[in-house]
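Q: I'm writing up a methods section and want to include an example of the input and output format. Could you take the sequence below and give the corresponding predicted structure tokens, formatted cleanly so I can copy it straight into the document?
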Amino acid sequence: MASNKRERELARMRAERQAARRAAAQTMRRQRRNAILLGTAVVALVAVVIGVVVAVGIGGSDKTTASAGKFGNTGGTGSCSYTKSGTAARTVDGLPPTTGIKNTGTQKATFVTTRGTVTATLLTSKAPCTVNSFVFLSQQGFYDKTPCPRVVNSGIFVLQCGDPSGTTSGGPGYAFADENLKGATYPAGTLAMANSGGGASNGSQFFMVFKDTQLPAQYTPFGTITSGLDVVTKVAAGGDDGSNSAGGGKPKLSISLTKVTVS
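A: Here is the clean output for your methods example:
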């Protein structure tokens, strides 16, 4: 009996020691976990501070917008918003200006292409932020010497341009919201923004409508072609290679923008 009692006592003591070791281990794990979480918070805070310093500069102005109105459609009273998004397909100077934007009247855009010249009236009063971005990019030569990589001849009738990478997936490194959509239609001659799903997904790509097209009012119309539509229709008549999964493909009669200007 004494032997059994001693064995039970030893077993109880072993169990208590094991429980104590488990509790100590849990405490250490909890302390390490808390230390990691604190370290992560500190790193995140440092990252935020560094990000602010890089974006704004110490005692300086916001470097994410174009330098001192160097580029952009300024000279008015409008305001716009642009958000960094992805990597620019070609280098641009920050973001378009966001204040003092022209928001009245119209302007003229000239597209010199390898197939002829197209001119358009830009709807500055109806889509000021879109025109501001278009002017901003044009002034920096973003569109110059770039292919128009997609033409569609079925269902919709458009020539898509504005991506220096020639892939229909490139952009300017920023995005902005739709405009001028109320009652929007897309007859032949419409100049409108391409996007990746509506909302604030506009970038640099746009399309020229060469035949009356039925589209939902989800693509910002920002201009009307006034001459040179025959250049676009000729390219479209040459057909496409069917390479674009969304419809159409690269024009068999290739066309590139040589120079884009706004006056």
